[in-house]
Fold each of these.
Amino acid sequence: MECAILEIDGSLSVLKKPQYQNTTKQDLTILPSPETKPVELIYDGNILYENLSNHSYDEEWLLAELKKRNFAVFDIAYAVVGTKGNLSIDLFRNQLN
């Protein structure tokens, strides 16, 4: 214990020695990761262009991702980019990728 103070209301406040104090993100100069929300990109076989334009994704990127998986837009019931940037696809034939 570095220091202890008996407060007027009778409580005891204790200041721990530096080696025993809790480390914070600020102490480590770690910047918080930006909060991201899932972005729906395809619904019912149609590209949601408004969602593409409001985020850092574009049609070229989306079509390239679908081509990697051998899918066409009309194959997809639902596609969403998750909070970690991963593209999840639900096909009409009920297969998840």
Amino acid sequence: MAKKELHIISTGQQPIKEFVSTIASIHDYVDYIHIREKTKTAKEIFDTVMYLTENKIPLSKIIINDRVDVAAVTRVAGVQLGYSSLDVESVKSRFPELKIGCSIHSKEEAIAAEKNGANFCLFGHIYSTKSKPGIAPRGITGLTEVVSTTNLPVIAIGGIQPQSTLDVIEAGAAGIAVLSGVLLASNPLGAVKEYAYKLGREGVHNEARKL
């Protein structure tokens, strides 16, 4: 099985220094860390990147949600663009060095993301989640449809637990994205190891079995 990615996304519920401290303890098991802090200013997001690098988190692992300006200035790996963000094509043409993720909710949006030059897409929500109350999940069926529509790597998000990770991967996802399942867990390191184990990571099997 090809390596599957594990993305950790900030919850917007933690003080930044607490978030950074948690990330510093788990990043060895993570491919990408997304800074998704919708209420933070550009300077606060910039400072978050600085705190992460001070704690030995490489820029190559950091993706910033929406704020293309901060992503370009800090030279992080990339930027995650959503419905209200700048369009993928414009950002890609002006900042070709940035890895661009596009948040999508349908196969039509997946087709558009690929056409416009995105590097990957984030699709969800797969399962019911407290962050999307009253909105029906798109489920494994929706994920399968999107994966069959695009050549882009599809990262699944939304209510994914360790025990459901394999179902998501078998549906064709290139990886998963997790928020509270790791960052708000009582034992974030134990939680991230369990996800990493379910994704087939070498070196965490024995550790995960002890959880």
